[in-house]
Amino acid sequence: MKHPKSDDPNDETEAGLSIETLLGYGSEGSSEVGDSFRIGDLAREFGVSLRTLRFYEDRGLLQPERQGTTRIYSRRDRMRLRLVLTAKLLGFSLTEAKQIIDVYHQPNGARKQLEVALQRMADQKVVLQDQRQEIDRSLEAMEVALDVVSERLQKMLDEK
Question: Is the pLDDT of residue 1 over 60?
């Protein structure tokens, strides 16, 4: 059962922020944060590459304004980036992240988004638990295979 963490072919190891930080848990919010951000600002804040931000823009996850060749991201883009990175950390694909994020723009969007997210997270937890069981079985089989192959090789070496 394969469930890709990311659709991003340029995906780098970007899980630099904890889930608590991404969810804003235990923080007082972002009162000191401005209303607009350059690409480098967001890249540094969230520990992602410029290439990743441009990729998210191409996928429709972020929609910065352009001032010449400069991308100017809004608070909305910043929040969407936070949600995308949270979804990735939870094992969702970018397509799934976008679906959850876009619920916000429906009637009663904030409440509905939380309801959808809660259900999707519960479903995703089951997927991850299934994957863990498969990985555990594969690791057990790997141990047996390593022992058997090692023994066979040792017998061949001993016979010479």
Answer: no
